[in-house]
């Protein structure tokens, strides 16, 4: 459980949310994680339903939420575990992270399978042999690349597309435990800088950073992970040396909306300004947002919202896509009017939030609590 201290060093009433290990919780970063998850749901449902280049295609750059998540993860993992390695083995770390992440991987894969099988609008779109579908489900449960299935855009996680970033998250945690935790801040900074240059080249060459989720550009996945995850680790190590402005959840969330909703930019003079914009967000704006969020206080009025948003972010991200595909297939097979489709989309948003909350309360948190007790693990800040 988290506790809350109410007395600051000056004696004034200050609410400081703390983890079970006694560390202060980054409540504004939690809130930002939830904001980004909601924005990526909007990105998926509007663009899958209306198309990618229409007046109703929203959040054109919201695929960058994945890079933002990777950066947050690196920062929070360093905060939670950098000082625990004298009393924690590598195997214990892997067990902690599996307990934290994998129960919802199972739920997301199962939702994806059920959505694929019982989508009332998927006839003629969702067509895959039973053995191939079973193989896709098993590999999804194990968070391994799955065979392509019909109607799923050649995604590496065919039944639950967003899970591709979770596979990268696992790789990032493995790299942290085996190598990255041992590196000095300077070395991490060099890795961030060199990989950042490669990211700039990739973004300019491809025209965006929207890649890594499908097989044709799967090579982009580890690049996006390396840049942002290492950036998060590096930021945590150097934060004491840099100015840390305090900006609240509302302003930072609005900044994310502005970043994601920016229009697609043209090419000129052999440069892709759209791709360079993506790279600038990842390399400059996201580190700034993370540092500002980490050192901002939510305040008594916003702390509950931040905690709720943070708890909801992962289940929302990992469970929503099955329902998005149902709406998208409805749009492409029934060709409803714009007003009808918008009505279904606006009903979908609170629905997927409610589903995520139910999954969190009645599956994820109880299962993680049982596994934590079963293996005698003390929970960390991450």
From TrEMBL:
Residues 29-359 form the Acyltransferase domain. GO terms for molecular function: acyltransferase activity, transferring groups other than amino-acyl groups. Pfam families: Acyl_transf_3 (PF01757). Keywords: Membrane, Transmembrane, Transmembrane helix. The chain crosses the membrane at residues 32-50, 62-81, 101-118, 124-144, 185-203, 218-235, 247-263, 275-294, 314-332, 344-363. It comes from Granulicella mallensis. It comes from the Bacteria. This is Peptidoglycan/LPS O-acetylase OafA/YrhL.
């Amino acid at each position: 459980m988290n506790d809350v201290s109410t007395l600051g060093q000056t004696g004034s009433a200050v609410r400081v949310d703390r983890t079970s290990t006694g560390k202060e919780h980054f409540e504004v970063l939690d809130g930002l994680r939830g904001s980004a998850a909601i924005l990526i749901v909007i990105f998926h449902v509007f663009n899958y339903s209306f198309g990618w280049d229409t007046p109703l295609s929203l959040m054109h750059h919201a695929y960058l939420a994945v890079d933002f998540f990777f950066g947050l993860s690196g920062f929070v993992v360093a905060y939670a575990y950098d000082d625990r390695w004298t009393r924690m083995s590598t195997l214990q770390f892997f067990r902690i992270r599996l307990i934290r992440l994998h129960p919802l991987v199972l739920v997301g894969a199962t939702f994806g399978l059920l959505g694929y099988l019982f989508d009332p609008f998927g006839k003629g779109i969702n067509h895959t042999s039973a053995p191939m579908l079973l193989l896709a489900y098993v590999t999804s449960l194990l968070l391994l690349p799955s065979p392509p299935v019909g109607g799923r855009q050649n995604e590496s996680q065919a039944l639950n597309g967003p899970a591709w970033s979770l596979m990268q998250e696992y790789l990032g945690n493995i790299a942290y435990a085996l190598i990255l935790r041992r590196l000095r801040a300077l070395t991490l900074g060099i890795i961030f800088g060199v990989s950042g240059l490669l990211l700039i080249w990739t973004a300019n060459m491809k025209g965006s950073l929207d890649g890594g989720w499908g097989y044709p550009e799967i090579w982009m996945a580890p690049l996006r992970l390396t840049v942002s995850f290492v950036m998060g680790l590096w930021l945590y190590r150097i934060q004491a040396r840099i100015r840390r402005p305090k900006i609240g959840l509302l302003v930072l969330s609005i900044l994310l909306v502005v970043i994601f909703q920016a229009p697609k930019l043209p090419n000129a003079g052999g440069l892709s300004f759209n791709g360079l914009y993506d790279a600038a967000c990842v390399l400059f704006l996201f580190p700034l947002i993370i540092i500002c969020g980490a050192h901002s206080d939510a305040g008594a009025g916003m702390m509950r919202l931040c905690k709720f948003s943070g708890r909801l972010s992962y289940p929302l991200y990992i469970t929503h896509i099955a329902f998005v595909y149902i709406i998208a297939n409805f749009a492409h097979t029934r060709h409803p009017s714009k007003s009808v489709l918008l009505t279904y989309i606006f009903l979908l948003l609170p629905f997927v939030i409610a589903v995520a909350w139910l999954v969190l309360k009645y599956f994820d948190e109880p299962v993680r609590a049982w596994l934590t007790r079963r293996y005698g693990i003390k929970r960390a800040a991450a």
